[in-house]
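User: Some background: our group keeps a shared notebook of sequences we're curious about, and every so often someone picks one and asks for a predicted structure to add to the entry. Today it's my turn. The entry only has the sequence so far, pasted here. Could you supply the structure so I can complete it?
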Amino acid sequence: MIPIQPITENDLPDVVGMIHALAAHHGDVSTVTPNDLRRDALGPHPWLHVLVAKGCGYCALHGQAPLQFGVRGMEVHHLFVQPAQRGGAVSGGR
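Assistant: Of course. Here's the predicted structure to add to the notebook entry:
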């Protein structure tokens, strides 16, 4: 089982590489940099919540608030699993 944990400074280069791979899969050219990801996913009030399964993949979530219903939630923005890891098992361990 591969633990899933919040992104850290050390994860930035690998996650940026996976973001580029996901964009290429969809025919896009990614321009995100480690500094962009640091700005948006690290710090006291992150814009994105990024979870990393080291060497396996990542998931980026962002908040949503359907104000008319008085609720909050998270929406999956990106989900990427390395091709060699697809079909395997991961855990939500800490």
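Suggested note for the entry: The beta strands are 2-6, 49-53, 57-64, 73-81, 90-91. The first strand starts at residue 2 and ends at 6.
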